[in-house]
Write a structure and sequence with these properties.
The structure holds two protein chains of two kinds. By secondary structure, chain A is mainly α. Chain A is built from 16 helices and four strands. The chains are: A mainly alpha, B mainly alpha.
């Protein structure tokens, strides 16, 4: 029995008793005796865990409550609902439209829904044989393997250059390089669509300096070396455009995060390395990289998640006539199934799989990335 | 000018070249948006080789064309977007900082499972929650209101993660001495945690503002005319028969301004505040 702290149970009831007068006393005594051991154990456990910080048990829950209420209502519930739907067929009957948006690349139609019907794992089985899903997965993987490393290497190189002591106009460069993030998503995708057309600005400039024009969006096999034509196919240039557009938009953003990481590396470490006669490369390899590890990891994980969320860019850029098979990402495909074909059950099953893939990837990256070596 | 070693000079030259090239690549499309917004459509569409790279005098005409549309009032949509993004950011900052404080500085039952279930939702492509959300919002009678856009992601998983990471740096001794001085737990949050976390809050504000600024599909589904946000309004200009590029350019040019201002004001903090996860575990 530790009497280090006042007994909160008793305090509470004392207060009540004072207010209520003596009439209730005998009843309360027995209640207190019943509750005390439970409360005491809980308080002791919590306190021991929290380095003996004396706060009452409810406080952290109160702090968390506002976030958690909204989180449960608007995120947790829809997620669980999606999982629930993935074991059912739930399809629109397209003869009765309740609600319809049809503008440009977006077609959204809400129709009266057929009965929810439980089908077990049928949606997941269908997914295994769905070649379009495999194609979308392959496209997404391609972007992940090409675009994310490219963007992070560029972002890191820029951050290193801007972190150098001799670099002038740091603020100006930093702001302008991060500017693309300020462009509105839909606006920037539309602008790229315009720039990259066969007779758009990019090809005009190419012509002016005497380079051949490239079918950025229309998906020809121009300029590809003969033997590769059939391998890379008509989707090659649209893929390059998509990677270019996404890289253009997010490199500066990641550069800023990496720059923040670089600036927090203690200067003494570099000085010590200088004294030991470390070369430029050795300083980067043995001081900068280990110190930057957590920030790099953060950038890698968020970029990976971002890749699996790609939606607006491929949707709008594919308006340029690119073959869908080259630019269809997972979310675009799921969107097609959900909002154009109205198979909500199947779309939900794909969503569950997608989230599973991303979660596994993120966990793997975190595991690999947080092996301590420094 | 000191005499540099040849090696050092080469590195500097390389560094400057690289940074300048990157700056050029980033700025050109944006510069071109601004230029195109001041030109008549045919001057920048299929220019061939006689491409125009200097601003013209057609900006107001393009803006007029944009504002004379029946279906969408673009200037109003800028206002809508700014209002939604500001309210959303403030609300989300409160929720995420309080929640992050609980995760960083308290021990409680189910702490880990709750935290990881929140983190897991980071991987969700938000477009895919549109169906259940739309059905829910309609049920609540919130469709076509600003709250329909503000509430769903106010409990932002990335936000609470960043806040938790950063709030771990607050020394326990500081909180403890404040407790001894008789501060309530809420005062610890309000008087100690928030002021020391200014940079992180500013960094998070940028992230949240950006997130809200670029939401597209969900507002498109929920909002009706008059409440459109910028992306939805721009999307109206992409007609099935014809895309109004001159008006899109004006809209794009105008839509950069608010975010640029946010960036300018908060950027200093952004660099010192985004250090998520750089706390040694």
């Amino acid at each position: 029995m530790s009497t280090k702290y006042s007994d909160p149970v008793r305090d509470k009831f004392d207060a009540v008793r004072e207010r209520a007068g003596e009439a209730v006393a005998p009843v309360w005594e027995s209640v207190i005796d019943a509750v005390r051991p439970l409360r005491q154990r809980q308080i002791r456990r919590t306190r021991a865990a929290a380095d003996k910080l004396p706060f009452s048990v409810g406080v952290p829950y109160l702090f968390l409550a506002p976030f958690f209420v909204l989180f449960s209502a608007f995120l947790l519930f829809p997620v669980l609902y999606t999982v629930f739907l993935s074991f059912h067929t739930y399809e629109g009957i397209s003869t009765t439209t309740l609600f319809w948006i049809d503008v440009g690349p977006i077609q959204y139609r809400l129709t009266r829904m057929a009965q929810l019907e439980f089908v077990g794992l049928q949606n997941y089985q269908r997914l295994l044989g769905d070649t379009l899903f495999q194609n979308a997965l392959a496209n997404t993987t391609f972007i992940l393997l090409v675009q994310v490393p490219l963007m992070i290497v560029l972002g890191l190189a820029l951050a290193l250059a801007l972190n150098a002591s001799w670099m002038r106009f740091k603020g100006l460069f930093r702001t302008t390089i991060a500017l693309p993030v300020a462009a509105n998503l839909v606006a920037y995708a539309t602008v790229f669509l315009l720039l990259l057309q066969d007779n758009g600005l990019v090809n005009s400039v190419f012509q002016m300096v005497g380079l051949p024009t490239i079918p950025w969006l229309s998906g020809g096999t121009a300029l590809l070396p003969g033997p590769l034509k059939s391998v890379l196919g008509t989707g090659f240039w649209p893929r390059v455009s998509l990677v270019g557009a996404v890289t253009w938009r997010w490199t500066g953003y990641n550069m800023i995060i990496l720059l923040a990481g670089l600036q927090s590396v203690p200067k003494q470490l570099y000085e010590a390395a200088e004294i030991d006669g470390a070369s430029r490369w050795e300083k980067f390899r043995y001081v900068t990289l280990p110190q930057l590890r957590p920030v790099l990891l953060f950038v890698v994980v968020t970029s990976t998640i971002g890749t699996f969320r790609l939606f607006s860019e491929p949707l709008i850029i594919s308006q340029g006539g690119a073959p869908l098979s080259a630019t269809r990402t997972l979310v675009v495909y799921i969107y097609n199934i959900a909002f154009q074909q109205f198979q909500l059950g199947y779309a939900s099953a794909m969503t569950v799989v997608l989230v599973g893939i991303v979660a596994l990837l993120s966990i793997a990256q975190l595991r690999i990335g947080s092996d301590s070596d420094a | 000018m000191r005499n540099l070693s040849r090696d050092e000079a080469a590195w500097r030259f390389l560094g400057y070249t690289f940074v300048l090239l990157a700056t050029l690549l980033m700025v050109v499309p944006i510069y071109w948006i601004v230029v195109a917004s001041t030109l008549p459509e045919q001057a920048f569409l299929s220019a061939g080789t006689d491409i125009q790279l200097l601003p013209g005098s057609n900006f107001l005409a393009n803006l007029d064309a944009l504002q004379s549309r029946e279906s969408v009032d673009f200037i109003q949509s800028i206002g809508n977007s700014v209002f939604i993004a500001v309210v959303y950011t403030l609300l989300s900052l409160v929720l995420c900082s309080m929640g992050g404080f609980a995760f960083a500085k308290y021990e409680f039952k189910f702490k880990e499972p709750i935290f990881y279930s929140i983190l897991a939702t980071l991987t969700l492509p938000i477009q895919l929650l549109v169906i259940p959300l739309f059905l829910m919002i309609s049920q609540m009678g919130l469709s076509n209101s600003y709250w329909a856009i503000i509430l769903p992601w106010a409990a932002n998983p990335l936000g609470i993660f960043l806040m938790r990471q950063n709030m771990r740096q607050i020394p326990d001794a500081l909180l403890e001495s404040a407790r001894i001085d008789g501060a309530t737990e809420f005062q610890l949050y309000y008087r100690i945690a928030l002021p020391t976390m200014k940079s992180s809050l500013a960094a998070l504000a940028i992230v949240l503002f950006l997130f809200q600024w670029n939401l597209f599909l969900y507002p498109l589904v929920v909002l009706e005319q008059g409440k459109y946000t910028i992306p939805v309004a721009i999307n109206e200009l992409v007609g099935a028969q014809r895309v109004y590029y001159d008006q899109i350019m004006v809209a794009a040019a105008l839509s950069i301004i608010p975010l640029f201002l946010v960036f300018l004001f908060l950027q200093r903090h952004f660099v010192s505040g985004i250090l998520a996860g750089s706390v040694k575990e």
